[in-house]
Amino acid sequence: MNRPIHFFAAALLAGPAIAALLAGCAKEDSISKAEKNAADSERPSIAETKAIAEEGYIYGLPIVMNYAVMYDYCVNRESGQYKGPFNELSNEARVFTYKDTAVVTPNSDTPYSFIWLDLRAEPFVLSVPAVDKSRYYSVMLCDGNTFNYGYIGSRATGNEAGDYLVAGPDWKGETPPGIKKVFRSSTQFSLAAYRTQLFNPADMPNVVKVQAGYQAQTLSGYLHLPVPPAPPAVNFPKIDKQLVKDNFFDYLDFALQFAPPGPEETEIRADLARIGIGPGKKFDFKDLSPEHKAEVALGMKEGEAKIEREISSGSKLINGWKIGAWFGDRDFFHGNWLKRAAAAKAGIYGNDSAEAMYPMTTTLASGDPLDGSKHIYTLTFAAGQLPPVNAFWSLTMYDGKSQLLIKNPINRYLINSPMLPGMLKNNDGSLTIYIQKDSPGIPEPNWLPAPDGPIYLVLRLYWPMELPPSILPPGKGTWQPPAVEEAPDLTEGRAFH
User: Fold this and answer.
1) Confidence of residue 462 (pLDDT cuts 50, 70, 90)
2) Same domain, yes or no, for 300 and 320?
3) Residue 210: CB partners within 8 Å, gap ≥ 6?
């Protein structure tokens, strides 16, 4: 889903057969012919079709990616990624591993809890327990547009217990007594993703206790009122990587019915309707001519290339690390669909910069690509120059091709600040992390296993400090991550204490 998408080969091959079939049909009656002529007048030109497809692909990629994850997590019980049905909170007493493949660049720092909310009938109340102030947690509310429309947790609301209301775009009720805050999703289906800090493997029972305090219930249940009528059943179309390649705009068409347009979407929605996608369309997308469909494929390809360029250029490059603000709410994106698509493809469901920063790199400061099959590397934080955070930081290794965690002999996917007491420091007080596919030997507590090929590193700073030294504002902060360096011999001449 995060690779270039090419499709419509089957539709193009079917074009001549469809034309022959239509030629043999009986003459249309005057009413249907008039309707057809009216529909034809709405069709854009070949050039317009390509432009709309390019823009529509950029606009729709995060929406389709979100639908694919939602389908795997709470519709397809055979997906291998299934978490539970809609409106049911699922806690995971583990961190993500290489076996988790539904989401690119997954976080392996914090055990997750998930609930995918169906907000069509009524809002939901999310209740959180009191959490020890030393433990970071957050509840990120992300809708089908991949807008992060709210947070509950250590930074946003504190570690005290509380009840919070999550409502869909059509709810018009009053805030009930006892509710601390109301959050409004822009779509009728919405994800609440809980992150609970794990200090070390022995700490998992304590995380489980916190997770047990997370509760979700309907507003009617919270207020002890009659349950409203159930919403209509939805026939969610099957989706996988191949189906996305073949039917991208069909999935976008399906998802948009649950996403009322915002004011900044008026133009793109109108353009999509012109090629048969979304509410207000005059004909079905499949009814486009083969020539139009060929231009759609080209437009999608060019849209994909634009997204790739945005990922590369949309951040400030500092010591080889790309640093920028990628995620946020509707106002943050303000109709910048290219930025939203790049964010989703780089790592869908990332946090706002105030909640977490994500410097990422695939290269040395020189621009040379990181490759675990050819070189060994180090990352050294000078004494007193560890990432400045209110919560914690981590450095996570991903396969440079798939953006997924990698299988390795010690089941270590990251190095984070809770691990510092067990790590070895250099005599000058600096900390070196060893990045290679094979064990470096003596400093193994400092070893971050790398793939036998391209490397993708993400440095996460949870709840970054706002005052200097700080990585904020993104790309302009007083603290900068050090460069990854190529190392011919990791241990020669190195002194530890």
Assistant:
1) very high
2) no
3) 129, 131, 135, 137, 196
